[in-house]
Amino acid sequence: MSPKKILIVDDEEFFIEPIKILLERSGYEVIKANDGMSGLEAARTQNPDLILLDLMLPGINGYQVCRLLKYDEKYKHIPTMIVSAKDTEKDKQLGKACGADLYLTKPLNYVDLVKQIGEILE
Predict the structure, then answer these.
(1) Sequence-separated (6 or more) residues with CB below 8 Å from residue 47
(2) Is the predicted pLDDT of residue 122 greater than 90, yes or no?
(3) What angle do CA 103, 122, 83 make, to 5 degrees?
(4) What's the first-to-final CA gap in the chain, in angstroms?
(5) Per-residue pLDDT tens for 6-35?
(6) Which of 9, 46, 52, 57 meets the CB 3.0–4.6 Å disulfide criterion with 39?
(7) Long-range pairs for 43-46 at CB < 8 Å and ≥24 separation?
(8) What is the CATH number of the domain that holds 74?
(9) Closest by alpha carbon to 115, among 46, 22, 39?
(10) Strand arrangement of the beta sheet that strand 102-105 belongs to
(11) pLDDT in tens, 56-115
(12) Domain extent at residue 14
């Protein structure tokens, strides 16, 4: 059985790299995208099993990426976890409104992240 594919969409390489290493060590295949449009394109062409999505991205923001995917019949099944430094209740409500399955705030607890990903992908 091939490993589950996780797409990380974030414009900060220092955030992506440790998570990429951690997830690969946990047996996942990791795809990276550094802005909203390339994240949207990667989601549509790579068909990941899960998306970790930042909100503050160059081009289109994470809310827009999430909404475009969740309102498309072909991609709405992909679980999407917003991972952002934005931690107000309004931000979390917007995340839910755009279709995100989970909203996590940075900095992340890596042990919890791997556990939550495992639970979603079971």
Answers:
(1) 5, 78
(2) no
(3) 20
(4) 14
(5) 999 999 999 999 999 999 999 999 999 999
(6) 9
(7) 43/7, 43/69, 43/75, 43/78, 44/74, 44/75, 46/5, 46/7
(8) 3.40.50.2300
(9) 22
(10) 29-33, 5-9, 50-53, 80-84, 102-105
(11) 999 999 999 999 999 999 999 999 999 999 999 999 999 999 999 999 999 999 999 999
(12) 5-121
* Secondary structure (H, E, C), the chain: CCCCEEEEECCCHHHHHHHHHHHHHCCCEEEEECCHHHHHHHHHHHCCCEEEECCCCCCCCHHHHHHHHHCCCCCCCCCEEEEECCCCHHHHHHHHHCCCCEEEECCCCHHHHHHHHHHHHC
Q: Which pair of structure tokens corresponds to residue 40?
A: 């949207």
Place of tokens 């996942």: 28
Q: Which amino acid is at 84?
A: S
The token pair that represents 67 in the structure block: 């909404």
Confidence category of residue 2, pLDDT binned at 50, 70, 90: confident
Structure tokens at 101: 């399955």
User: How many domains does the chain divide into?
Assistant: 1
